[in-house]
Amino acid sequence: RQEHVTVSPPYPSKVIPVAMGDHPRGLYISYGTWMASVGRDADFEVGCVPSFSQCCCLGIGCCIPSLVGSGHSFLSGGGVVLKKALREGESVVVEKTAILAWDKTVQMDAQCAGGASVVCCGGMGCCNMKLTGPGNIYIQSMSGRKWAMAYSVS
């Protein structure tokens, strides 16, 4: 007997399949990006953010959800979705809403978005997220929050 389950992202976006075997220590995920997992040992964990500056400046709260196990997980991401493998010591600075997921081996930190004029008038907020390898990161160009703001009726 064949059975089917259908899942769909909560807003117009792409479905990103992630082979969990490629992430043996697990994968941190942003809130609202997980759709489904296939595998008997797929599980969630919740970890504490290591520093107060990350908790306050990055807008991710004091806890970070993560996926662990084998099989496949499916994430939703909008716009262009990019997977980047960071080498040891290689860093990328992204807007905090652009990150979908990152390996637990990747170091996360807050970085000032710029000088006072950029922070006050540039529309980028106070801090960006700095991710330092080794490990994989998944980045999106149109988060659910951005999509909702762009298509909201005034």
TrEMBL record:
Q: What is this protein called?
A: Uncharacterized protein
Pfam families registered for this protein in UniProt: AIM24
